[in-house]
Amino acid sequence: MSRFVLGDTVQVRQAYPPGHLRTPTFIRGKRGVVEASPGIFANPEELAYGRPGTPKQPLYRVRFLQSEVWSDYTGPTSDTIMVDIYEHWLIPDGPPS
Amino acid sequence: MVKHLRKPHDLGGLQDGQVDRSEHTHEPWEKRVDSIMRLVSDKKRLILTVDELRRGIEDLGPSVYDELSYYERWISSLTNVLIEKGVVTSDEVGHKMNDVEARWSADREIEP
Amino acid sequence: MTKHHRHPNQPDIEDTPFTRFQVMTEALIELLMEKKVFSAKEFRIQLEKMDAKSPADGAKMVARAWIDPEYKIRMIADVNLAAQELSLDAGHIPIQVLENTPEIHNVIVCTLCSCYPRMLIGLPPDWYKSRAYRSRTVREPRIVLAEFGTEIPNDVEVRVHDATADLRYMVLPMRPPGTEGLSEDTLATLVTRDSLIGVSLAMPLDLDNGQLENKEEI
Questions:
Q1: pLDDT value at position C1?
Q2: Closest Cα in chain C to B57
Q3: What does pLDDT average to over chain B?
Q4: Do the chains contact at C165 and A41, CB–CB below 8 Å?
Q5: CATH of domain C54-213
């Protein structure tokens, strides 16, 4: 049912459509690792317009290295950020280089 | 690559000043806004979703978003969405706002 | 209601002119009541419910987790069920508990909105909703934490959680050293709102603060 499993490396789609979006701009195009898949939810990008939110979307908790999100990150390279991303915003990616 | 616009609520990673940590207790009217939202979105009523509230806030436009306080944005969006859904009409809201304003103004004049 | 009595919902401060938004709020409430969307009683109960929510609920759960490792496991697995064990209501939005360890320090933010585990902590403070906190926490978390007086050693991973979707987060802070033998109630007083957000640690034991007086007799 879900396209990704724990440990998969994924990339966030780099798309900038209008509308109510739950994928913050700063994380689009970035690569991360699926850390958890808490369930399947009505799509809020549809609910926002009074529609039923179908098809429902699997949600993933994706972990990113801060140093990969921000080229000028000043903290330790082990620092991370977790962002919750719905499946339609993710594409598969090879292992990190 | 074409230039894309960020909506005013999409703040992650932007530069800003120090976090102002001063505490403020919620004003009564702010809690009232919050309560309206909880009621119209609860399981019993399901009149609107928090997603619709957020969409309405994000579509207030950059200058309005930045100018209004948190609950000012909420009541603006909430009222717009309820009008959009036909739960209330603009005309009803307009009349009622005039009533409330007149009543509050009169109350103030009477008090010493 | 007669004209001679102050309307109970009128803004309190005499000299401050009331705003368009306050008027709109009251107008909407009255309209929705007239349309029987909700009753005055339902509205009052909702207000009271919210007033009853405070960081004390989250703090209670953390204190229990500190003294009962089995409870901690249940709390991380399902915060709603764990809340019920203490007669608390964590609401219907799933809340994920993020455990701080000697290796990982968690901190929560919502860059798109201001999502917050309000059912266990109450309404968020202003700074949590501020532009500065929402924009900077994902990019320079250690600098933001330092502004809260929280220095995290470089060998500890700082893990930021951006609550953008359908989950809410609450941090389970580490138990401060030297608190062995304290009662659950006393431990709960060390769990501040800010430590549940992750911008600070649980309060250190303050010997001058009388906390030891409550020390459980063993």
A1: 39
A2: C113
A3: 94
A4: yes
A5: 3.90.330.10
Closest CA to B96 of B82, B110, B111, B85: B82
Residue partners of B10: CB distance under 8 A and separation at least 6 = A21, A24, A25, C111, C112
Max CA-CA distance within chain A? 44
pLDDT in tens, B21-61: 999 889 999 999 999 999 999 999 999 999 999 999 999 99
Catalytic site includes residue C183: no
**Confidence band (pLDDT; 50, 70, 90) for C4?**
very low
Look at residues C9, C10, C113 and name the one whose alpha carbon lies nearest to residue B70: C113
CATH number (2.60.40.10, 3.40.640.10, 3.40.250.10, 2.30.30.50) of A9-92 reads 2.30.30.50
Give yes or no for a contact between C111 and C135, defined as CB atoms under 8 angstroms apart. Answer: yes
Closest by CA position to C128, among listed C139, C140, C117, C143: C117
| Å between C217 CA and nearest CA of chain B | 37
Residue A79 near residue A52 (C-beta atoms within 8 A): no
State how far the Cα of C163 lies from the Cα of A85, in Å rounded to an integer. 10
Closest residue in B to A17 (Cα–Cα): B4
Per-domain boundaries in chain A: 9-92
Q: For residue C98, what are the β-bridge partners?
A: C171
Rounded to an integer, the average pLDDT of C139-155 is 98
pLDDT digits (tens, 9 = 90+) for A34-49: 999 999 999 999 999 9
